[in-house]
Specification:
The protein has a single domain (10-473), classed as Amino acid/polyamine transporter I, CATH 1.20.1740.10. The protein is mostly helical and 474 residues long. Helix 2 (24-37) packs antiparallel against helix 8, helix 13 crosses helix 14 and helix 15 (363-396) packs across helix 17. The protein has 17 helices and no strands. It is globular.
């Protein structure tokens, strides 16, 4: 079956953990969230970031605990394997559901990013068809992932470095503008927060429904926990990745939104259509729009690369659990890359990307409206797994955990409650109602599929046993 090679270095994990959350959701989606929520969007981002931090803390606790339990039993632990945790601490049906939902979400993201990349390339170079650009970039990322996990880490390191540099530059310039120390700009002061209809002009509910969009924008922080399993020092790197997420989420997301609502009126749709570029232009940087476009393009490639990596590792783990065909559990090259799982995820991603061109308003719309809700469901399963894990861990050993969930069990239950509330808040907003129903259907369908497949497997086993008994009696 082979084993994954621990060839990622500490600097790879660190930059993956920082760059993993910086995608098009930050550069493009932030302005839309401010338009729908008002200045109170900063509260939505703060709550969403806090939820992701709590989920990461839970994942870190389970991963560090599994290392301890694995060491005591002489077995190995699957770091960051949400499906494994759900199967072990909730039940096989939960492991099946979490694994396939998480895999499907990331595979769709690969297809989505490929379509967007193709569109950007076509706008820049009209002679390149949209599908050629999308397929070509996806093929390149597939080759990078197949070659070795180290090549993935190195590529992601440098491409994340570009994104992080751009965000830091924006934060420095924006902060200087807000404080009034940037030349040729007069700050508007705190009055801008209430000047155009109040801090929450559309009410309280949009604050919670916007969290769904924000979570979809920042999902990916947990990729660092998965990647840590293939690093040179898993125990050290998973702790570092979890701890870094608090700082980077607050700085990049909450910080960016705080700067935007202090500079741009929340109801200015023209300025918020491209808030990063427009604010930098206001600062007297005329080439800002072109630079931001390049950064967005780089971010699309980065998210595609990470999505392909994440989906392939989840497919690999599901195969080893028996929830996916065994062929995907094989490590096919000497550098430890799970080639069948990577190719399997790539093929499905191509299909998703094709649907963007074949049926953008029906099938692709259906898939896109599922992803945000499915991520919330996966996070709920992670939180339930963590509660059951901690109780099991405390019964087996007294060895302290390298990472512990704060205020356990109260904060874990509160996290679950908020996630459930946010999920059902989708019903209250017409634009999110379809997402709620579609994602709910997919979740229920995946659970039913597990039991249907289980019954079919049970019947097949019974038939084999009867045949064996018949031959034995003869």
């Amino acid at each position: 079956m082979g084993t994954l090679q621990k060839s990622l270095k500490t600097r790879h994990i660190t930059m993956i953990s920082i760059g993993g959350v910086i995608g098009t959701g930050l550069f493009v989606g932030t302005g839309k969230n401010i338009l729908s929520t008002g200045p109170a969007a900063v509260v939505s981002y703060a709550i969403a970031c806090l939820l992701i931090v709590l989920i990461m803390q839970m994942v870190g606790e389970m991963a560090s605990g599994e290392m301890v339990l694995g060491r005591k039993s002489g077995s190995s632990a699957e770091l960051g394997s949400f499906a494994s945790y759900a199967e072990k601490y909730i039940g096989p049906w939960a492991g099946f559901t979490v694994g396939w939902l998480y895999w499907a979400s990331w595979v769709f993201i690969v297809g989505l990013e490929a379509a967007l990349i193709g569109g950007m390339l076509h706008n820049w170079f009209p002679f390149i068809p949209v599908w050629v650009g999308g397929v070509g970039i996806t093929l390149l990322m597939t080759i990078i992932n197949i070659y070795s996990v180290k090549s993935f880490g190195e590529f992601e390191y440098w491409i994340s470095f570009i994104k992080v540099t751009a965000i830091i530059a924006f934060l420095v310039v924006g902060t200087a503008m807000v404080l009034g120390i940037w030349p040729n700009y007069e700050p508007k002061g705190f009055g801008i927060l209430t000047e155009f209809g109040g801090f929450a002009p559309n009410g309280i509910i949009p604050i919670f429904t916007a969290i769904v969009f924000v979570i979809f924008s920042i999902c990916g922080a947990e990729v660092a926990a998965i990647a840590a399993a293939e690093s040179e020092n898993p125990a050290k790197n998973i702790v570092r990745a979890i701890k870094n997420v608090v700082f980077r989420l607050g700085l990049f997301f909450v910080g960016s939104v705080a700067i935007m609502i202090m500079i741009l009126p929340w109801n200015d749709s023209t300025m918020l259509a491209a808030p990063y570029a427009n604010i930098l232009s206001m600062a007297g940087l005329p080439i800002a729009a072109q630079i931001i476009q390049i950064v967005i393009f780089v971010s699309l490639i980065s998210v595609l690369n990470s999505a392909l990596y994440t989906s392939s590792r989840m497919l690999l783990e599901m195969s080893r659990q028996g929830n996916a065909p065994k062929v995907f559990s094989q490590i096919k090259n000497r550098r430890g890359a799970p080639v069948p799982a990577i190719l399997g995820s790539t093929v499905v991603a191509y299909v998703c990307s094709l649907l963007y061109f074949v049926s953008p308003e029906v099938i692709f719309y259906f898939l896109g409206n599922c992803v945000g809700g499915l991520m919330i469901v996966v996070y709920i399963f992670i939180a339930i797994s963590q509660i059951r894990f901690r109780r099991s861990y405390d019964l087996q050993t007294t060895e302290p955990l390298a990472i512990k969930m704060w205020l356990f069990p109260g904060l874990s239950y509160i996290t679950i409650g908020i996630l459930v509330l946010i999920y059902f808040c989708q019903v209250l907003i017409e634009s999110l109602r379809t997402q709620f129903y579609l994602s709910s259907i997919v979740v229920v369908g995946s659970i039913l599929l597990f039991f249907i497949l289980g019954k079919l497997a049970s019947k097949k086993t019974e038939q084999i046993e009867r045949i064996e008994e018949k031959f034995a009696s003869e």
